[in-house]
Amino acid sequence: MNATQREKQVKALILFFIVALLVSGLTAFPIRREIDGLIRLFGPGTWMEALWPAMTEWLAFVHKGVTETYQAYPFLAYGTDWLAFAHIVIAIAFIGPLRDPVKNIWVIEFGLIACVLVLPLALICGPIRSIPFF
User: Fold this and answer.
1) What is the pLDDT of residue 3?
2) CA 19, CA 78: separation in Å to the nearest integer?
3) What dihedral do alpha carbons 114, 21, 61, 33 form, nearest 10°?
């Protein structure tokens, strides 16, 4: 593989990462509608209940939590608005490496470090927040 092919491959991966960040950010806005859809597809009374009852029970619990929180304390959703915004801003930061990956290698390194740090965060904070491992 020559340098031009390698650069195209790197840029394609960066573009994929940008799109993934944008999608994950944009999906943080409509959480209530998303959990409503999940409960219709995989909640109690669906095929999932027989296949994976613990997941169905968890989804019902999350649905109840989101619904009740949004009704009683809608301002708490503002936190996920900022989460969405952060994903979009981070995606924008990767435009530099998309143009010139070598010159902007520090952004790539930042992204790699952030990806690695997701695992300990999930493994530490998940149990603290009573989120099942699955």
Assistant:
1) 84
2) 23
3) 160
Helices (H), the chain: 3-26, 31-42, 47-51, 53-72, 77-93, 95-99, 105-128
The first and second tokens of residue 126, run together, are 């998940």
- Classify 45 in phi/psi space as left (phi over 0), alpha (psi -120 to 50) or beta: left
Cβ contacts of 74 within 8 Å, gap of 6 or more: none
Q: What are phi and psi of 35, to 5 degrees?
A: -70, -30
Summarised one tens digit per residue, pLDDT across range 49-68 is 999 999 999 999 999 999 99
How far is it, in rounded angstroms, from Cα 100 to Cα 97?
5
Q: pTM of this prediction? A: 0.84
**Do 87 and 24 meet the contact criterion of CB atoms below 8 Å apart?**
yes
